[in-house]
Design brief:
The protein is of the alpha/beta class. It has 10 helices and 12 strands. Strands 6-2-1-7-8-12-11 form a 7-stranded mixed sheet, with helices on both faces. Helix 2 links the parallel strand 1 (61-66) and strand 2.
Length: 345
Amino acid sequence: MQITPQYRKIQHTPKINQPAFKGLMRLDPKTYAPLDSWFFRDYNTLKAAADEIKYTFPQGAEVLDYACSNGEETISLKALLPDTRYKIIGYDTSESALKLARRGIYTVFSHWHDSFLLPDSSPNRIERSLKSGFYNIMEETGPDAGDLFINNKKTYFMLKKGLPGFVERFFRISPEMKEEIDIRRGSIQNLAKYRSQTSKPLGAVFFRNALYQLCGNDLNETIEQRKTSTFSYDKKAIIEDFVDKLYSRLDRGGIFVIGDHIKDHLFLADKMTPDEETIFFKDSPFFNELDDRHKKVPFIRLFKESPLTTALEKNNRFTPVGYSTTRLVTGGKNMIVPTIWKILK
Ligand SMILES: C[S@@+](CC[C@H](N)C(=O)[O-])C[C@H]1O[C@@H](n2cnc3c(N)ncnc32)[C@H](O)[C@@H]1O
């Protein structure tokens, strides 16, 4: 299946007009892996995934939230699936992210995607219900010295100085919910060996905005900066192997959920990609002929079809059941892309 704008439109995520920043612990200080996350990121997908899990597994299920970073995503999922029949476990490989998760202190800012969670925000209808789920788990806490220490102070103070009216609030998992938020060290690469923690079916695997780290799809914010790096990864082989493991482990009716970042959907060709499976950037739907940055690099080779989509659709193993929008950060069109994949048989 080719990347085309054919998918049905979904409600778009909120528009950010203010200077953007990507969370205070942006990179793992040891591996430089991006750790950025926020509460209810791409909430249309999260909500649709939670509804799908409830519908297919009313008796309960295990939900594995791989690449949960320091836990905003796992907490968001818990808010959407509060029933204890759903056992949600967050996993991440970054020691730095896990250290923050163990601390259990989180920040919510103004000027950002999850600022609707601030106590005096004016959320829309969907956000109101997300906010209420959030406050069932989290409570405000004061920023004592230890809490500030968990953040990247340099960025924090820079933001505070640069954004007049910048507001931040600190939250912690309320003591009675502490046991419910289960975050561990673990890599999705060990999925085939994963042993269930309960007798429940494995209903969902989340791996959002992280696949690019596994397969070296170093297609970053600026496509033109990244045209030659990580060229030697065999992305297709890595992804096929990954999807085989996923398929063998998930129960029937289970879902696989990916992110809305461009790096989960558009893949740079590598040394192993045959020419007939590639497309020039200028011929892809993401190219904007009016954008000077795009015009500089029309001949970057990309996979014509996302190798992830190809692997998921092989033998009709997975079918897309939920969508979101993605775009190059340098501009160009918004594209509707599948983010929730279900095993039907
Ligand atoms: C950009 S963050 C995305 C966090 C969150 N999923 C979201 O979308 O907001 C990517 C995360 O993937 C984690 N990660 C990378 N490779 C992983 C793997 N093989 N297994 C589990 N986590 C991984 C990184 O440590 C990092 O925390």
